[in-house]
Amino acid sequence: MPLRVLVVDDSALFRKVMTEALKSISEVEVVGEAPNGKLAVQRVRELKPDLLTLDIEMPQMDGIAVLDALRQGGEDAMVIVVSALTVRGGRLTVKALEKGAVDFITKPETSGVDESRRAILNELAPRVRALAHRREIRSILKVNPPPPPPPKKPEQARIAADLGRVAETMSRVANAARPEMVLVGVSTGGPNALAQMLPSIPANIGVPFLIVQHMPPIFTQSLAESLSAKCAVRVREASHNEPILPNTVYIAPGGRQMRVNSGNGGSKVIEITDDPPENNCKPAVDYLFRSVANRFPGRAMAVILTGMGNDGTLGLRLLKRNGCHIIAQDEASCVVFGMPKAAIDAGVVDAVVPIEAIASRIVALVRGS
C-alpha cells in the first residue's frame, strides 16, 4: 500500500517540483497539495495522508503553527520539513523537529527545475522509503501485538532471579572502569530524541558528551542553542582545538568531521576537520567513534540512537574490542530503526533501551551505581 503524501508549500513552482519528484518514487501516492498552512490543516483532516512535506516558512500560518494544529487535532500524519539553508530556517527546523516532525530536507540551491527535482528526489527517496517501512512495521505490531510471556513457575522464577543476580554482578565487574566520556550517534529523528534524553542528565554528571547528529551547516548551531535552553549541562557546537570539559555536551558542526585527540598534560581536545564524508555523512558517527577507540581505548561509553543507514556500527566494533559499554535505542521509540538495528545485528550492543530510559542508564553507568 503506497504512502499517501500531501505537499504543502506557498510556491506553486516548488509544489510542482516536489510533486513530480515524489511521483517518481514507487512507494508514494501524492494525494493533494496545499499553498498555505490553513489549507494544509483542512486537507489533512479531509484526505488523511500518511505524510506531509511541509514548507517551514509560509505567510499567515507557518510550518510550526501547522504542526501545533495537527497535534492539537489528534492527527498522526508524519511530517518532513522543507527548509531554507539559513539561520532562521535552521532555528525553525530544529523547533519543528522537537515538536514531532520526523525529518527535514533543505531547498536546493539550484537554478534549473530538472536539477532541483533530481536534488529533491535524492533527498526524499531514502527518507520516504524508511518511513514507509516504519509505517508497515507499526501497523503489523498494532494488529498483531506480541503475546505476553507465559507466567513462570516458582522454580523457574527462582532460577531466573539467581541468574539475574549473577548477570548484575558480572556487569558491575565488567564495567568497574567508569567511562570518562559519553559518545552519541544519531540521525533521522535525532533532535526530538536528544530533547527527550539530554534534559534528564544532571548538571554534575562529571563527564563530557560528544554528539554526532547528521545535519548540514548552520542547523547544528541552532540545535545546540535549543538544547542548551532545556538542559542542566552546557550544550555547545564544538570548535577546533577546544579542550573537552566535563558536564558539557559538544555537537559536531554540520558539514565538518569531529574527532578527539590528546592535548597537553593528558587532556583531551576536539579537532574539527574537512576530511571526506564517511557513509555519505559529514559529520559521520564512525569518524568520531573511531578516533576515541584508537586514542582512548576502554575509556568511553557509546549510545546509538534513531537514524537511517548504518553509520556508527564500524566505530562501535572498535569501541567494543576494548570493553566499551554500548546502548542502542529500541525500535518502538525510534523514528527510523536503521542505525540502532545495524549495531544490534552486529552483536556490539549491551542494552536496548527506550529513549525515555536512556538518560538514567547513562547516569547509572557513569556513577557506577
Structural summary, described in words:
With 369 residues, the protein is α/β, with parallel strands linked by helices. The protein has 2 domains: 3-143, Response regulator (Rossmann fold, 3-Layer(aba) Sandwich), CATH 3.40.50.2300; 176-367, 3-Layer(aba) Sandwich (Rossmann fold), CATH 3.40.50.180. The protein has 12 helices and 14 strands. It has helices at 12-23, 37-47, 63-72, 87-98, 113-143, 154-174, 190-197, 219-228, 285-295, 313-321, 338-345, 355-367, and strands at residues 3-8, 28-34, 51-55, 78-83, 103-106, 181-186, 209-213, 234-237, 248-251, 257-262, 268-273, 300-304, 325-329, 351-353. The protein has a 7-stranded parallel sheet with strand order 8-9-7-6-12-13-14, sandwiched between helices. Strands 2-1-3-4-5 form a 5-stranded parallel sheet, with helices on both faces. The protein has a two-stranded antiparallel ribbon with strand order 10-11. Strand 13 (325-329), helix 11 (338-345) and strand 14 form a beta-alpha-beta unit. Helix 1 (12-23) crosses helix 5 (113-143) and helix 9 (285-295) runs parallel beside helix 10. The N and C termini lie far apart (48 Å).
Looking at the structure, what is the overall shape? globular
Unreliable residue runs:
169-176
Average the pLDDT over all residues and give the rounded result.
Answer: 89
Instruction: Report the CATH architecture of the largest domain.
Output: 3-Layer(aba) Sandwich
Structural class assignment: alpha/beta
Strand content: 15-25%
Number of helices: 12
CATH class of the largest domain: Alpha Beta
